[in-house]
Amino acid sequence: MQHGSTTEGMPTDEKSNRLSLWGWIRDQFHMRPPEDDEPQSWWIASTAIPLVAATTGPLANVMSVTALVVPWRSQILSYEDGTAGNLIQEGYPDPRWSISLNAISLCCGIVGNMFLLFNFTQIVRYIIALPVTIILWFISAGILCGITIATDIYNPPVGIDRVYSQGYWSAVIAAVLYFILGFVLMINMLGYFLGKYPQHFSLTGEQRTLILQMTVLVVWLLIGAAIFQRVIGISFADALYFSDVTVLTLGYGDITPTNSVGRGLIWPYAVIGIIILGLVVQSIFKFAREVHYDNVVQKHIEQKRQYTLEQSIGFDELNSSQGKHPTSGEVITPPALTRQGSKTHHHRPIRNTINALAAGRRPRILVMREEKDRFDAMRRIQSDTMRFRRWNNLIISIVAFGIVWCCGAVVFWKLEGITYFESLYFCFASLLTIGYGDFTPQSNPGRPFFVVWSLIAIPTMTMLISEMTDTVVAGFRHATDVVADYLVLPQSRVYKTSLGRIPGVSQFILSRQEKKRRERGFPLEGADESNTREIADAEEAGPSNTRSDDLAESHPHRSLEELARDPTPFELAQELAFAIRRASKQAREGKRERYSYEEWVEFTRLIQFTNPRARPPSSQRNQPANEEGLSNDEDEYGLVNWDWIGENSPMLAKQTEPEWVLDRLCESLIRYVSTQESRAVGGGTDLTEQPTLRKERDIGLDE
Predict the structure, then answer these.
(1) Which domain, by its residues, includes 156?
(2) Is position 155 within any domain?
(3) Judging by beta carbons within 10 Å of its beta carbon (0-12, 13-18, 19+), is residue 686 exposed, middle or buried?
(4) Angle, helices 96-120/166-193, rounded to nearest 10 degrees
(5) Which region holds residue 200: left if phi is over 0, alpha if psi is between -120 and 50, else beta?
(6) Which of 529, 553, 577 is the endpoint of a domain?
């Protein structure tokens, strides 16, 4: 023992290596507390996996119920199709040990599913509920695997007329589902141990509703199986298959009710089942879109925003590098983006002008034009993100549809003894809920698999159709509208626009319009021409634009030069009240309206003028404003200042623009009232100078 040894005879170097390995493994785990609100990663493990497990767990329970109530071995009595649409079979009893273990497996599966639901409702802690669910589901899978293997070894169906029934294959499917769900929940626990997210499932109310709706759908299928087993006189497994085909509106016709009682029960059962299925599909669609937006689309927006922010350039940095000051209307190209021999970049430069107005170095109109570059850059990001979201959703739906379609076809090809092309045809007709009935699952393993596959495949197909509405269908609708403008309901402005793009024709049309204006005595240029064009466009647009015209009359759009004027606080207070009314009306309509830059300038002024730190008193109005005050993004009432391509940009909010503007305007109103109240109490203002809002009719606005 020259190197020294421990009391157990282990060398010191080997022991230190083992301790260091254990220490390294222990250092990898950083379990976060439940109240931790830090950013989360591994969004698939934290959100998608728990929801998939909670919605698929009841399907495993259904297969386990079928495995318990249906004998695992059956005898073929006739090779002719019976009432159930397949060979006439009769099951014979299983051994008691098999039934007992099967019941224990079912109890473990149901209790494990209950603990998972208790975790979602926070009745049981995550660190307790999830391990219990995983252990119980693995026990269920192990018991079912043991029973199926033991049955195949010690008590298989012997004879040419004896086969494994649908109950046996339901047990196989249940064991596979329990094992897969337990394994994916272990991935969720691994993410928790690695500190990727806190010890709770970050599910919304709608996602919890999806779990409840899926559970109700599964229970409804079990109720239908129990009822139609008695009414039609078929096995529980066939009745479950019949209930599934009925609720999914497939209508194969291989199993049909043969008496008046069964036909009468179809009415309420099908209606209620279809309603439940519709709610489940809608919730799945919302969940898929929400998860995709929060974890894929938002990441895309952030990458685009960061790239745009890196390409932005401040005027101070530009002037120091070029040794000159820009003038109004001068085109400025960032030096980093200029290359010799390269083509001129088609994007306008993005200029960093936050708080530039506070410094008092440039005219207000120039600052506003500089800010418009950042605004336009964020609008381009919005448009690009909208296209990315639509087509990315469509591609994901197509891939999911293809996987479900082709993989299902492979299974039915092997189980049903048909060609792969016929299997593809059968799966496609089933996914579209056409249900011709020329091909239907007939084998004992095929029908239990079809129940599980159809409950996964039909919602996938529905999601694909919904995504096509925003892309392919929208493009077809636009093309139809264009054709209708030319052929079905022709409009003169459409032909004028198309012909105006031809150089010779456009000159002829302009000369003809000038000739007509001379004959009527109007000048060729000026305000009358623009007014006449606006009137003609309004007449061609028809009465459909009346509402928007009324809104435009009540709130005329202003140019940047007009917005550069510094109004009095009294005028701003009046505009604030009318802006709140206008924004609330647009928010109630629910339209995702996008405001122009000029409108945003007006809203921004109404939001910021009530901030006493951002606006100097009237006695100091000609002095530069406090730069520290303008740099404050928030006050005690809400958001005051933002950057168009910054993290707090209004275009990154989940609200619509009218909703976001309405919240900020209301915060500004509260801030204004609080400021006026504090001034009145302090005696620092003359009450005669308080703004008195005139009625709408006094300034020419209609009710």
Answers:
(1) 37-201
(2) yes
(3) exposed
(4) 40
(5) beta
(6) 553
Q: Distance of alpha carbon 401 from its chain centroid, rounded? A: 18
Rounded Cα distance, 48 and 464, in Å: 19
Rama region for 85: left / alpha / beta (φ>0; ψ in -120 to 50; rest): left
What H or E segment, with its residue span, contains residue 174? helix 166-193
Which residues contact residue 304 at a Cβ distance below 8 angstroms, ignoring those fewer than 6 apart? 381, 384, 385
Q: How many CB atoms lie within 10 A of CB 638?
A: 15
Could you tell me the pLDDT band of residue 533, with boundaries at 50, 70 and 90?
very low
Measured in degrees and rounded to the nearest 5, phi and psi for residue 23 equal: -65, -40
Q: What is the DSSP string of 218-285?
A: HHHHHHHHHHHIIIII--HHHHHHHHHHHHTT----SS---SHHHHHHHHHHHHHHHHHHHHHHHHHH
pTM: 0.73
Q: Are residues 510 and 591 in the same domain?
A: no
- Tell me: do 61 and 178 sit in the same domain: yes
Q: Please, which residues have CB within 8 angstroms of residue 153's CB and are 6 or more apart in sequence?
A: none
Count of Cβ atoms closer than 10 Å to residue 234 Cβ:
22
Alpha helices in 418-445, H assignment, sequence order? 420-431
The mean per-residue pLDDT over the stretch 74-91 comes to 73
Task: Give the sign of the dihedral formed by CA 387, CA 393, CA 398, CA 402.
Answer: positive
For residue 371, tell me if it sits in a domain.
Answer: no
Q: Which residues neighbour 251 within 8 Å (Cβ) at sequence distance 6 or greater? A: 245, 435, 437
Mark 593-602 as b/e (b = at least 16 C-beta within 10 Å).
Answer: eebebbbbbb
Place of tokens 């009415």: 267
Domain CATH number, residue 124 = 1.20.140.150
Q: Which region among 380-394, 578-592, 601-615, 664-678 has the lowest average model confidence (pLDDT)?
A: 601-615
CA dihedral 370, 372, 373, 379 (to 10 degrees): 160
Give me the phi and psi of 612, to 5 degrees please: -65, -25
Q: Number of folded domains in the chain? A: 3
